[in-house]
Amino acid sequence: MMDSDDPIVHLDNVGLRYGTDKEVLSGVSCSLDAGRFYFLTGASGAGKTSLLKILYLAQTPSRGAMRMFGTDMLTIPQSRLPEFRRRLGVVFQDFRLVEHMSAYDNIALPLRVAGVRERDLAEPVEDMLSWVGLEHRARAKPATLSGGEQQRVAIARAVISRPDMLVADEPTGNVDPDMAMKLLSLFYALNRLGTTIVVATHDLNLVRQMPDATIMRLDKGRLMDPTGALRYPPRAERPAGKRELYDRAMRPTIGFVKADEHDSGDDSVAADVEAAEKRGWEMP
Amino acid sequence: MHRKQATQLLPQTRMGGPMPWIIAIMVALVVLATGGALSLNRLASTANDDLAGSITVQIVEADPAERERQTEATVRLLEADRRVAAVRAVPQSELDALLEPWLGEIDPAAPSVPIPALVDARLVGPASEAELLRLESLLKRDAPDARLDAQADWLGPVFAAIASLQWLALVLVAMLAFTGITAVWLASRNALSINAKTIEVIHLLGGDDHQIARVVQRAMRTDAVVGSVAGFVLGLLALWLLGSQFAALESGLVAGGGLIWLDWLAIVLVPVAACAIALLTARFTVLLLLRRPV
Description:
The structure holds two protein chains of two kinds.
Chain A: E1 9-16, E2 25-32, E3 37-41, H1 48-55, E4 63-68, E5 71-72, H2 81-85, E6 88-91, H3 103-113, H4 122-131, H5 147-159, E7 165-169, H6 177-192, E8 196-200, H7 204-208, E9 214-219, E10 222-224, H8 240-249, H9 269-278
Parallel strand pairs in A: 3-8, 3-9, 6-7, 7-8
Antiparallel strand pairs in A: 1-2, 1-4, 4-5, 9-10
Chain B: H1 3-7, H2 19-51, E1 54-59, H3 64-80, E2 84-89, H4 92-103, E3 117-123, H5 129-139, E4 146-150, H6 151-154, H7 156-194, H8 196-204, H9 209-247, H10 252-255, H11 261-290
Antiparallel strand pairs in B: 1-3, 1-4, 2-3
Helix pairs in contact in B: 2-7, 2-9, 2-11, 7-11, 9-11
């Protein structure tokens, strides 16, 4: 059972190797708190994607211990994995949209998998399409969408079920800087709703936009944590004022800030989200 | 998860071109084999019922007068026995007609070879070995030349052949079922292979193996129903043609092979069973193949 103060993910001395090759991840230990924003950075080949795969339960560590949502993920039976995966949202580096499905059906997929009735699907899916600015492309197949559009469909699919944790692998890799900022503002807005966000990126500009985010840096498969921010238990409690802000953001009536609203002339994501907060986070 | 939703997880294509044909051929052959086996069973059963209590008494005596006396004594003694239901002395004209194909026309006044007299009798119970011995001792004094045979013994080799054919039909049905299962297994594996990427995404989004299995099962359902119905019609047509051919023989034995409603019910169950086997095989193949570590 997960205590409210428990980290959402706890890795202890985790290692990963493929076959008999040398380890791509070595001695990774970290704790990810619920409701926080994390950037996972590192050079190509540092092991970012491998660590993300462990986080979105596509890969089992070769060694070490892993707890997620208060459960030991290395000892649970295979049949229980789907229930944990449904609490995660994943934006894959290559999007992994289902080719034979329209943008609408791709976004609806997690809800269908979760057993949501067909008649209850339309509203949230249309909201998501609107949120990522793709209402007019609802019936388009992935092959006919641009890279940026595919990316937005992938993001909408990842967040539609309001996951406890969103894991995104280079989500801004295929879009221009302006769209990258829009996507980041979407993630930030989702984070303000209480979702833990882990974004793998090598775009330092992006990282600079989120001064409050915790940075996890991988170097040759090892996790650098010079400030101890990733240790468990954490060094200091979260300030009370910030907790209050999270609580407010998690009110059930709130919606999402629209991607298109980022164009406020201010480069700061926080300023963008602040504008949405003043509006009460209601969907326009 | 709602069934309709499950089908939307993978493309709604059918399992593949040859699958309905394969199922149709299997079902047609199984219908034919089942119909044949049931017909043989019915034939054996009818013949057995007819012959089980029947005996033939031969009076093997060269002297016609003595043969006549012993025949009358035999009929009298058997009629008096409470375990004999019916007795009939086979008339000489009937015997002559029976032997005519081999001996030619026989002059009743002066037959060229002495022909035994025959008495047919039907017992209340089966003509067991003990019953034959009892009747033999009953006739011994007044008809010492009487020889008793159970009619069922004459058809013993025929019954053995029928039993062999029934086993052959059963083996054929089992082999066809095995071949059908293999074909469905290969088609399901092929469907998984074609949709491997989509299935991986569904898994990563929290879909479970049973959801995937339902999708493949639904795709198989159309092919199984179409193939089974087509095969059933073909099989029935073949059965009807064979039945017509045998009926034309006008043989008493073959006439006993007519199917009753229970047999037809078993034949109707063949396509139903084929569908069920195809769907279960598809489901278990998918669940088996997807059961792998992360």
